[in-house]
Structures are given as C-alpha cells and as structure tokens.
Amino acid sequence: MVKKTVPKKLTFMSIYFLGINGIIGSGAFLLPQSIYKDMDLLSVVVLLSAALTVGLIALCYADLASRFTGSGAAWLYSYNAFGRFAGYELGVFTWFLGCCTYAAEVVAFLTTLKSFVPAFNQSSVYFAVGIGLVLLFSIINFFGRALVKIIDNTSSIAKLSTIILFIIVGMFFMHIANFHPVLPAAAAKGVGPFFHHFGAAFSVVFYLFSGFSFIPIAASQMKDPAKNIPRALVAVMVTVTILYTLMVLIAIGILGHKMSWYTIPIANAFKSAVGEWGYVIIIIGVLLSIFGVAFTCSFNTPALIASLALEHQLLPNWVGKKNKFDAPWVGIILTAAVTLLLITQSYLFLVGCIVLASFVQYVPSIFAVIKFKHTGQYPNHGFKLPGGYTIPILALLVACYLIFNFTWETILLSIVVAAVTAVLYLFLGKKRLAKMGGIPTAVREKKNHSNTVEKKKLIDLITVYLE
C-alpha cells in the first residue's frame, strides 16, 4: 500500500522570511530620494510614524488571522463579514494590486537601468525592453512553475545580502555634518507647508510597508496559522522598520543633501563610501532583487484570478482555463495586458495606485474586526487584539488619512476598476447564479453557519497564490 505524502506546512520561520521578502521590494532602493526631498532628515521620523501607523493595521490583520485558518486574507475576511459581493470586489482589487505591483517592479527595473545606461533615456528603448520583459515572463509562465522557486530564492538572497552589506559597511562612512538641515526650507514655511510635505512623504513611505497584507493569503499552507501568522506579522514589521531606518540614516549620513540628486541613492551612497565597485555591487543586487519580485508577481497574479474563477465561481470559467502545463493561460494574458498598460506610467504613480489598492483592502478588513468584536462571530484563537475597539478605530483613522494624499488620477482609476468590477458582477453573477440554480450551496451553508466541506472550500481562497 502506497503511503500518501502529506505536504509540509510553513513553520513560523518560513512565514517570517516570506513576509520579509514580500515587503522589501524596489521601493527600499528607489524611494529614499523622494522621501528625502520632502522631509530631509525628518524623513526618518516620517518612516517611523508610518511604521507605527501601518503597525496598527497589521495588528487588525493579526486579530483576523487568529479567527480564520483558511487562505484569502482581505477577501476571506470581507466575505465572512459582509457577504459575497464585498468578497468579490476585494478579490478583483487584490488581482489589480498584483498587476500594479508587477508593473511597478518592471518600471523600477527600467529606471535602475536608465540610471547608468543612457540608451534607456530614449522612450523607444525603454518601452521596447519593458514590453519584452512582460512578454518574456508570460511565455515562461505558459510552461508552468519550474523556475519560480529558483528565481524567488535568488532574488531574496540578493536583496537581503545587498541591504546587510550596505548597512554594515556604510555605517563607517557617515559624517555628522550631513545630518543637516533637519527640515527642508519649503516645509519650514509654516504649518500648512509642513503637513503638505509630511503627507507627501508619508504616503510614499506607507508603500514600503504595504506588502504585509499578503502574509495571511496562503494561511491554509501554514502550520498553526492562528498562532503563527499574528506572531510573524509583528516580527516582520519590527524587522523591516529597523532595516529601513538604518538604510535611510546611513544613506543620509554618507550623502547629506546629495540624497535628492540620485534616482538610486543607496547605490550612489555606497559608491561615495567605497568607490565604483560598491556601486556595481549594489546595482547588481538591486536588479536581481527587482527582476525576481517582478517575475514572482507575473506568476502569482494570474494564479489569483484563475482561483477566483475556478475555485470560487466568482468569474466565468474561461478566465481560469489552464493549458497542459497547468498554467492559467487566460489569466496570464489578462495580467500581461493590464500590466503593459500600467508600465506606461511613472514609478511614483504606480506606487500611489498600490497604496490606494491596499487602502481598499484595509478599510473593509478593519470594519470586519469591529463587526466580529461586536457580534462575537468567529472567536479568536492564539491572539486577541487588546484594548477593545481602540486599535481598530485608530487604524481606520490612519487608513482614511491616506485619502487626502491620493492624486485625482489614482482615485479616478480606482473608481473605474470598482465600477467595471461591479458591472461584471451584476451581469455575470446573475447568469452564473441562474445556471447554478440560485444561490450556490456554499453561500446557503454560510448563511446557515454550517461548517462543512463546502465552507472550507470558500475559506481556502488563494492556496495557489504562493505555491
């Protein structure tokens, strides 16, 4: 008799490193310039403020993760709190967030190349390589997942090695004189200008931490998720905050006011410290890191939309069609098409889109915490948010503060995505419900609070997302 092999589940340390790799992306290397332009030395204070406030939202996710052992994160929480339509909208927005992240990493890759290869300043070369990258990733993904783990591991090692090398060596080349001025002249003209610059820097820094929301997505693949995910969320946020703070402080200590001159200040700071070879090492690390994150997004994002179609009947079946290599070829094409449109935009615009799409996930999730605390549904296991409603309300205020820092372009884009998604649900949803004979069994059982296999299928949303 052949003994069935049970797949190993992710331990606490595996979840921890998954979170580190998911949060630290291209922004760690490209965004310090933008933050410094707005707040000079106080950019470190902005960074710590953002870490603290994002931490409040992360604690809400920790509370929700302790209530559910299934995969899905924001989708799962909203579905159980507010019903099928809310879960559907969140599922599509999560896919859109994946497309934005994919596009942002491709643009970051091209921006990095542009900093030392003059040919990339020509739009024809820039977009030709960008389109080529998206098509290359799509073709590779048509043949399955063989390369994903290799590229993801290489990216993780390159990223963490680059950051640690920069911190350890860079701290010996800082100059106290470079920590002046504390605040840029434009932001020191009054309360209004100060908060304008603070808000601009805050929304950019917020992006640096936004990846934490993906940690619970594959909860069903994790060992004791109700206990380990909350612990991992807190540990990851503390670790990333320390790494970001040290990177920005050391870069300012080496470059001073020159921080605002360079597109990739971390690489130029290392060059200023140790010479040309330092610049080359950081650039290679940055390129490998960005390439790996972009490729991983190109694989995970189509898997998400295919899952919404096949496993949960929220989209037409054809959206989830797979080829003989088990690759979701329709999802790959749809993801590539949206990403190609998005790479025509600037890196900072895409950062804004990612923060806004994250905001759309955060608010319903925070409301879900408040609802479950009030109703007593889905009790906590392993972690309970202290302080009653205090942390969720503070987290909600922080999330809503971001509204004042979004550009009208990003708000308009999100409204379009939400409207198109709602229209598709209205027409396709009715058709699908009619075909299935009314409300799907799983939804009826949810309303009856029945814990059956069908409910488990609904809870286990995005198992394929990080496979």
Rg from Cα: 22 Å
Structural class by SSE content: mainly alpha
The helix content is: 55-70%
Shape descriptor: globular
Key phrases:
467 residues, mainly alpha, 18 helices, disordered N terminus
Which helices and strands appear, and what pairs or packs with what?
Layout lengths: L11 H12 L3 H4 L1 H8 L3 H23 L8 H9 L1 H31 L8 H19 L6 H23 L20 H19 L15 H31 L9 H10 L1 H35 L18 H14 L4 H29 L14 H12 L6 H28 L5 H7 L5 H7 L8
Helix pairs in contact: 1-10, 3-9, 4-9, 4-10, 4-14, 4-15, 5-6, 5-14, 6-7, 6-12, 6-13, 6-14, 6-16, 7-13, 8-10, 8-12, 9-14, 10-11, 11-12, 12-13, 14-15, 14-16, 17-18
Written description of the protein model:
- This protein has 467 residues and is mainly alpha-helical.
- Helices cover 69% and strands 0% of the residues.
- It is built from 18 helices and no strands.
- The protein has helices at residues 12-23, 27-30, 32-39, 43-65, 74-82, 84-114, 123-141, 148-170, 191-209, 225-255, 265-274, 276-310, 329-342, 347-375, 390-401, 408-435, 441-447, 453-459.
- Helix 6 (84-114) packs antiparallel against helix 12.
- The two termini are 28 Å apart.
Brief synopsis:
Helix 4 (43-65) crosses helix 9 (191-209), helix 4 packs antiparallel against helix 10 and helix 4 (43-65) packs across helix 15.
